[in-house]
Write a structure and sequence with these properties.
The complex is a heterodimer of chains A (about 375) and B (about 800). Chain A contains 16 helices and eleven strands. A five-stranded parallel sheet of chain A has the order 4-7-10-3-11. In chain A, strands 1-2 form a two-stranded antiparallel ribbon. The relative contact order of chain A is 0.09. With about 375 residues, chain A is of the alpha/beta class. Chain B has a four-stranded parallel sheet, sandwiched between helices. A four-stranded mixed sheet of chain B has the order 6-4-3-8. In chain B, strands 9-11-10 form a three-stranded antiparallel sheet, covered by helices on one side. In chain B, strand 3 and strand 4 form a beta hairpin. Chain B is built from 36 helices and eleven strands. In chain B, helix 1 packs parallel to helix 3 and helix 22 packs parallel to helix 24. Classes of the chains: A alpha/beta (about 375), B alpha/beta (about 800). Chains A and B meet through helix 3, helix 4, strand 11 and helix 15 of A and helix 16, helix 17, helix 24 and helix 26 of B.
Chain lengths: ~375, ~800
C-alpha cells in the first residue's frame, strides 16, 4: 500500500504492511501527501502543512481535488482546533482524559501531520528516568573517549529540539515529580544544557511537545504548577452519544475476539447495548430517559472498560457456557468494573439495581444475575 | 385611526425653527441588545444631529420615558406593561446599558431632543395577546420576527426542517445573510460584521439594503404573525408621519434591522396604514419600569429577549480598547477570587491562544468562543467547574438593575392589593392578629394567601401564637404589620412573577434549583399549604433527584417525615398524593440500603442525633402505614434494623433504641434476652448506660406495664457492685430523669410491689396485712355513700 519513500523511515525497517501496527504517518501517507499538495495556506516554520490542513486531517473531509480524508477523531472539531492552535503558539499541549478517550491516538496523528513523524515518543512510567527526557551516555564510548558529543545518546525530546519537530510524552503524571521537572527548562527556555560538554541544544522553530495524562491519575504525581503553566490543557471527553459508543464497543470487541482467537460467539448486540447503557448511566449520574439521578461510582467506567467486560463475557461463554453471550456471563464482569471501592460503590450499585434495573422491561434476567454476582 | 393626534405630547424639545429643504428621516436598523449596534448608533446620531428620535418600543410608554434620565435608574431595567384588571397579562421590554434603544433614549434626553416610542402601543399588543391566550401568559417584547432576527442559535433548528426553510429564513433573516457570507452561525457573522467593529463607521445604509433584498426574497408572511407585523410597521410609519407633521425636520428612527427598509422615505400613502390599523383591539394597560438582571436577559433563563452572554456584551460595551486582554484579565481576577492560581503569564498565553484560534478560524477578531476556549485550556487547566464559574459570573453576569424611587407600582403589588381588598385585609402599620378557622372558605383563602407571602419571604404577615387556646388543626393564627421597607421587598419579589401565585411558584422553582434536601422537603409542606400544586410536582421531581445524589443518610432520613406529613395534609386537602407516595417509598428504600453503613463506629454525640432521626423515621413509617398498604416497606425497615442490632461496632444507644423499636413492633421475640445480654457482666458500664438510655428513653409506659423488663432493669441495678453503681448512676439518672414525676413514682411503686410479690401471683390480688382501717375510714365512708349501700 505505501511504497513511497517520503516517510523518511530507515531503510532496514520492514515494510509497513508487514508490521503488526504501522505508524500513523505510514498508514495514512496518501492522505498526508494529498493534504500537503492541496494546502496553500501559510505554514508555521517546519510544519509539513498549515494548521487548517492539520485540523482537516484529524476531523476528515473532502479536499478540493476530490481526495477523501477519513476522520481520525470522532468528536468536537473545536477541541482539535484548540489543540492545533496551541501547538502553533509554541505552547506545549496537555491532553487530559480518562483512559480510552483517544488521547494517544490524537497525539500520534497530530505529530504525524505536523512533523511527518510520530515516533519521537517517551512513554511515561514510574520508572522513567531523566535520561529519557534529556540525554544519556553510551558508557563504552564514555569510558573510552571521555565525554564527547559522539558518546551522548539523545532522548526523543532532544532529537525533536534539534530537528524542530513534535515530541510526544505519554502518561505524564506517571513520571516521578523530579523527572517531570526536567521538562521545565525545555519548555520555558526552549534549550537543553549539556554541562558535561559545556554545550547546549537550542530548540529549532517547530519544536513542541504533546503530553497526555489520565484525569483520574492526577493524584499520582500531580504536575507542579510551574510545569502546569507551560501547558495548555485540552480535555478529551467520553463518546457523546450512546450510538457512537455502542459502535466503538462492538467494533473493538470483534477485533479483540479475533486477535485473542476466541471461538466465535454470536454478536450479542443486546448485551453490548445493556453494558454501554449501564456504564453511561452510572458515569453520567443520570438515567438515559433523564428521569432519575444516580450516584456515580469511583471507577472510570470508560469505553475501554466496557470493551473488556464484553470480551471477558465472551470468553466465559465460549469456554464455560453454551456459546451465546448471556446476562450471567456479563454480570460478573460488570460488577467487578463498577465496584472499585467495596463500601461506597457497593451501595451505589445496589441502589442502581433496585431503583433502575429491577423495573426496566427486559432486564429481569440481568437484574437477577447481578444480584447473584454481587 | 386617530390615536396619533394625542400621542406627540412626548418628552423633549419643541420643533426647532424650520430649516429650508425637505424633511429628512434616517432609519437606523439595529440588533436588539447588540453593543456593536449601540456604538455605531451613537456615532451615527452624533453625526446626523436629529431634532427628533423615534425608537421601536410601545408608543404609550412615552410618559415613562423621562424616567430614563432619572438619577436612580441603573440598567438592566425593563419597561413593564400590564393590564391593571389582570396583572398576569403583562409584557416586558428589557434594556441593558448596551442596548441600542437605551443608548438612543438616554442620548436624546441628554441632548434635550424630542424622543418617543413608535411601535404598536402596549394597549394593543396586550389586547391581542389577551384574546389569543386563555391562560395567564407573560410575554416579552421582541416576539416572533424580532426574536429570530437577533437570535441566531435559537433558530438554527428551524434550518434543519428543509420544507419550511423559507419561514425559517424569514424568522431569522440574519442567518440567511450569514449563510450567504459563508458563516455557519448567524451570531458569529453579526459579531464579525457589526458587533466586533471598533472603528464606529456607519454600517446602517448597508444593512438597510441587505434587509430590503432579504424581505423581497422572502416575501410577506401570512397568518396572525403577518398581521401583527403589518400592524406594527403601519403604526411605526404613522408615528413618523405624525412627527413630521408636528414640524420636526431631521427625524432619526431606531428599530430592529428587519423593519428598517419599510420605514424609509418616501413613505407609502397613509390611507393604507390607516386601514391596516383599523379595528385593532385595545385594553387599558399600566406601564412602569422594573429592575432587571443580566441572568434574565440571557436566553438561558428562558426569556426570548435573546442573548446568551449579556456579561460579555456589557464588557464589549464598557471596554473600548483591547477587549480581549481586558476580558481575560477580568477572568483571571475572578478566578483568583476563587483561590485558583492564575498569573499574568497565564493571561498572556490565553490572549495568544485566543488570537491564534481566531486566525485559524479566519475571524478578524477573537470572539466569545475563542476567548472561552482559551480560558478553558490555559486559565482553568481544562477544569469544567472553573469554566462554569466564569460563565455564570462573567459571561452571563450578575448585574441587578435599579429603578428610581419615583417610578410607580409593579403588578405584583397591584395583584396583592386586589387580593387584600377582596379578603378585607388592611395594610396597617400597627400589629393585627388574624385568627383563621380553616373550615370556612373565606379564612381558607386568607390562609393560602398568607402562606404564599411566606414563601415569597414577604414578612408582612407571620405565624403567631394564638390568643385563643385551641389544639385543632383547623385553626391558624397570624400577625400582620406593614412596614415601609416592604414596598421595596414587593418590587424585589416582583422579579419572580406578576401575581402572588406565580411569584410564589417561581420562588419554589428557585428552591428546586438550588435548595438542599431539607429546603426541598420544607418547601413541600409550604407548597401544600399555599395551594401550589404545579410547583409541588416540580419540587417532588427535584427531591427525588437530590435524594439520589445525597450521600448522607441522615439527610435522607430527615427528609422523610415532612414528606409523609405532607402526604397526609395532601389527603385532607384532596391533592393528588400518588407521586408523594412514590418518592417517599424510594426514599425509604435508599435509607434502608445506606443505614447499615452509617451507624457503625460513630461517637456518642452523633449517635444521639441519629437516634432521634431513627425515631422520626419510625414515626413517619407509622403514618405512612396508616395512609395505605406499606407493609413491604415496613418489613424492609425492620429487616434493616434487625440486621444492625447484632453488630458490635454500633453505639449502645442506637442498639438499645433499635431493639426497642423492634420490640414495640412485635418483630422481636427475644427482647428480654437482649436486654439481659446488653446489661450482662461482660459489658462495660458506660456502654450499658448508653444502651439503657437508648432503650428506655421516653419509654416510661413500657417500664410501668411490662413486668419482665422492669424486673430485668431492677436485677441489673441490684447486681451492680458499689463502684460500678457509682459510675453508672449519673448515666442512668440521665435517662430516668427525663420521665415525669408521676411516672417515676409509678415505676418505683411497681418495683417495690414486684419485690414483695411471689412470681406467678397476680399483683392486683395481693393483700396487705398492715392495712390501717382507721386512716382509710373517711374514704370508705364516702364510697359507701356513693354506692348508696351500707357497710356490713
Amino acid at each position: 500500500m505505501n511504497d513511497s519513500p517520503q516517510t523518511g523511515s530507515v531503510a532496514e525497517q520492514p515494510a509497513p504492511d508487514q508490521t503488526l501496527r504501522p505508524h500513523a504517518e505510514q498508514a495514512f501517507a496518501d492522505e498526508l501527501a494529498a493534504l500537503a499538495r492541496v494546502d496553500d495556506r501559510p505554514r508555521p516554520p517546519r510544519w509539513r502543512m498549515s494548521p487548517w490542513a492539520v485540523v482537516t486531517y484529524l476531523m476528515g473531509g473532502t479536499l478540493s481535488d476530490g481526495t477523501v480524508i477519513s476522520p481520525k477523531y470522532v468528536g468536537s472539531q473545536r477541541l482539535i482546533e484548540v489543540a492545533v492552535a496551541t501547538l502553533a503558539t509554541d505552547r506545549a499541549l496537555l491532553l487530559l482524559g480518562v483512559p480510552g478517550t483517544a488521547k494517544s491516538w490524537v497525539s500520534e496523528h497530530l505529530a504525524a501531520a505536523i512533523s511527518g513523524s510520530s515516533t519521537l515518543l517517551v512513554q511515561g512510567t514510574s520508572g522513567t528516568a531523566e535520561e529519557s527526557i534529556r540525554y544519556g551516555w553510551n558508557y563504552a564510548r564514555l569510558l573510552a573517549e571521555g565525554p564527547s558529543p559522539a558518546a551522548l545518546v539523545p532522548s526523543p525530546v532532544m532529537t525533536a529540539m534539534r530537528t524542530g519537530t513534535i515530541a510526544r510524552l505519554e502518561e505524564l503524571t506517571r513520571i516521578p515529580a523530579d523527572v517531570q521537572d526536567a521538562l521545565i527548562t525545555v519548555l520555558s527556555e526552549k534549550t537543553l544544557p549539556i554541562p558535561e560538554l559545556g554545550d547546549e541544544v537550542q530548540a529549532l522553530k517547530g519544536f513542541n511537545l504533546i503530553a497526555s495524562a489520565n484525569d483520574r491519575d492526577r493524584g499520582v504525581n500531580e504536575l507542579s504548577s510551574a510545569l502546569r503553566r507551560r501547558f495548555n490543557t485540552v480535555v478529551l471527553p467520553l463518546p457523546a452519544s450512546e450510538e457512537d459508543e455502542v459502535n466503538i464497543v462492538s467494533t473493538r470487541v470483534t477485533e479483540m475476539a479475533a486477535s485473542l482467537e476466541l471461538p466465535p460467539v454470536p454478536a450479542a448486540a443486546e448485551e453490548i447495548r445493556r453494558v454501554v447503557t449501564v456504564f453511561r448511566e452510572l458515569r453520567n449520574g443520570l438515567t438515559n430517559d433523564g428521569r432519575t439521578k444516580l450516584k456515580t461510582p469511583s471507577g472510570t467506567l470508560s469505553t475501554a472498560e466496557a470493551i473488556s467486560v464484553i470480551t471477558s463475557g465472551i470468553a466465559l461463554s465460549a469456554h464455560f457456557g453454551d456459546g451465546t453471550l448471556t446476562s450471567e456471563d456479563v454480570a460478573a464482569g460488570i460488577v467487578g468494573a463498577v465496584i472499585k471501592d467495596p463500601v461506597a460503590d457497593q451501595v451505589i450499585w445496589s441502589e442502581y439495581l433496585e431503583v433502575v434495573a429491577r423495573d426496566r422491561p427486559g432486564w429481569g434476567a440481568f437484574y437477577n444475575a447481578c444480584r447473584d454476582a454481587t | 385611526m386617530s390615536v396619533l393626534t394625542t400621542e406627540t405630547a412626548a418628552y423633549g424639545s419643541t420643533p426647532t425653527i424650520p430649516e429650508p429643504g425637505p424633511p429628512q428621516v434616517e432609519v437606523f436598523g439595529i440588533r436588539h441588545h447588540g453593543p456593536g449596534s449601540a456604538r455605531s448608533l451613537l456615532a451615527a446620531l452624533e453625526a446626523y444631529r436629529p431634532d427628533a428620535v423615534l425608537i421601536e418600543g410601545p408608543a404609550d410608554a412615552d410618559p415613562q420615558l423621562r424616567w430614563a434620565a432619572a438619577a436612580g435608574m441603573e440598567p438592566p431595567i425593563a419597561l413593564l406593561a400590564y393590564a391593571p384588571d389582570r396583572p398576569a397579562l403583562s409584557a416586558f421590554w428589557p434594556y441593558a446599558v448596551f442596548s441600542p434603544e437605551w443608548q438612543a433614549l438616554t442620548w436624546a434626553l441628554r441632548h434635550e431632543i424630542h424622543v418617543a416610542f413608535c411601535d404598536l402601543p402596549a394597549s394593543m399588543t396586550l389586547a391581542g395577546a389577551g384574546r389569543a391566550e386563555h391562560g395567564d401568559e407573560q410575554f416579552e417584547l421582541f416576539d416572533g420576527d424580532d426574536e429570530g432576527e437577533e437570535d441566531g442559535p435559537s433558530t438554527s433548528s428551524g434550518h434543519e426542517e428543509g420544507s419550511s426553510g423559507r419561514t425559517a429564513a424569514r424568522h431569522d433573516p440574519l442567518a440567511a445573510m450569514a449563510e450567504a457570507a459563508g458563516y455557519d452561525d448567524a451570531e458569529r457573522w453579526w459579531d464579525d460584521v457589526i458587533e466586533a467593529r471598533l472603528d464606529g463607521s456607519s454600517p446602517f445604509p448597508m444593512l438597510i439594503e441587505a434587509m430590503a433584498e432579504l424581505r423581497t426574497a422572502l416575501g410577506q408572511p401570512g397568518g396572525r404573525e403577518g398581521r401583527s407585523e403589518a400592524r406594527r410597521e403601519a403604526y411605526m410609519r404613522q408615528t413618523i408621519r405624525a412627527t413630521l407633521k408636528a414640524g420636526y425636520r431631521r427625524v432619526a428612527v431606531v428599530c430592529g434591522a428587519w423593519h428598517a427598509p419599510v420605514l424609509t422615505l418616501p413613505l407609502p400613502p397613509a390611507t393604507l396604514d390607516q386601514r391596516t390599523l383599523r379595528g385593532t383591539p385595545k385594553r387599558k394597560v399600566t406601564l412602569t419600569w422594573v429592575p432587571w438582571t443580566h441572568q434574565r436577559l440571557a436566553s438561558a433563563t428562558g426569556y426570548g429577549a435573546g442573548i446568551t452572554s449579556p456579561g460579555w456584551y456589557h464588557h464589549l460595551w464598557s471596554a473600548p480598547d483591547k477587549p480581549i486582554v481586558r476580558w481575560l484579565t477580568k477572568v483571571a481576577h475572578s478566578l483568583r477570587g476563587k483561590d485558583l492560581p492564575v498569573s499574568s503569564a497565564h493571561v498572556i498565553e490565553a490572549v495568544r491562544l485566543a488570537e491564534t484560534l481566531a486566525v485559524l478560524r479566519d475571524r478578524p477578531l477573537a470572539g466569545l468562543a475563542e476567548v472561552s476556549e482559551a480560558t478553558r485550556a490555559v486559565l482553568c487547566d481544562g477544569d469544567e467547574v472553573a469554566v462554569r464559574y466564569v460563565t455564570d459570573e462573567l459571561v452571563v453576569g450578575q448585574a441587578l438593575g435599579a429603578v428610581d424611587d419615583g417610578v410607580p407600582t409593579v403588578p405584583l403589588e397591584a395583584d396583592l392589593n386586589a387580593q387584600c381588598r377582596a379578603l378585607r385585609i388592611k395594610r396597617d402599620a400597627s400589629a393585627k392578629i388574624h385568627d383563621l378557622d380553616l373550615r370556612k372558605d373565606y379564612d381558607q383563602r386568607r390562609s393560602v394567601l398568607f402562606h404564599r407571602l411566606q414563601l415569597l419571604g414577604l414578612d408582612w404577615i407571620a405565624p403567631a401564637e394564638s390568643w385563643v387556646q385551641s389544639q385543632g388543626t383547623f385553626r391558624e393564627t397570624w400577625e400582620s404589620q406593614w412596614r415601609p421597607e416592604l414596598s421595596v421587598a414587593l418590587v424585589e419579589a416582583s422579579l419572580w412573577g406578576t401575581t402572588v401565585e406565580s411569584a410564589a411558584s417561581a420562588k419554589v422553582g428557585e428552591i428546586v434549583e438550588s435548595g438542599s434536601l431539607q429546603d426541598l422537603t420544607g418547601a413541600i409542606e409550604g407548597c401544600l399549604l399555599a395551594d401550589l400544586p404545579a410547583a409541588l410536582g416540580r419540587l417532588l421531581g427535584a427531591l427525588a433527584e437530590r435524594a439520589a445524589l445525597d450521600a448522607d443518610v441522615i439527610h435522607l432520613m430527615e427528609a422523610l417525615p415532612p414528606l409523609v406529613r405532607a402526604q397526609r395534609y395532601g389527603d385532607v386537602r384532596g391533592t393528588d398524593t400518588q407521586q408523594l407516595a412514590v418518592v417517599a417509598e424510594t426514599l425509604v428504600v435508599r435509607i434502608c440500603l445506606q443505614l447499615p453503613q452509617a451507624v457503625g463506629g460513630i461517637e456518642e454525640e452523633h449517635a444521639a442525633t441519629l437516634r432521634g432521626t431513627i425515631d422520626r423515621v419510625q414515626q413517619a413509617l407509622g403514618l405512612l402505614a396508616a395512609a395505605g398498604d406499606h407493609t413491604q416497606l415496613r418489613q424492609r425497615w425492620f429487616a434493616t434494623l434487625a440486621q444492625i442490632i447484632d453488630r458490635a461496632d454500633v453505639n449502645g444507644q442506637l442498639l438499645g433504641r433499635m431493639v426497642r423499636i423492634l420490640h414495640d413492633a412485635e418483630q422481636l421475640d427475644d427482647a428480654a434476652d437482649r436486654v439481659h445480654r446488653a446489661l450482662s457482666y461482660g459489658v462495660e458500664a458506660a456502654a450499658k448506660a448508653a444502651w439503657v438510655d437508648g432503650f428506655f428513653a421516653d419509654g416510661a409506659l413500657l417500664l410501668i406495664h411490662d413486668a419482665t423488663l422492669r424486673r430485668l432493669l431492677d436485677d441489673w441495678v441490684s447486681s451492680l457492685a458499689e463502684q460500678e453503681f457509682a459510675d453508672v448512676l449519673p448515666l442512668v439518672r440521665r435517662t430516668l430523669g427525663t420521665f415525669s414525676a408521676p411516672e417515676r413514682q409509678s415505676i418505683g411503686g411497681r418495683i417495690t410491689a414486684d419485690s414483695c410479690t411471689a412470681p406467678g401471683l397476680d399483683p392486683g390480688a395481693e393483700i396487705d396485712e398492715h392495712f390501717d382501717l382507721e386512716r382509710a375510714r373517711p374514704a370508705l365512708d364516702t364510697v359507701d355513700l356513693i354506692l348508696g349501700g351500707r357497710r356490713g
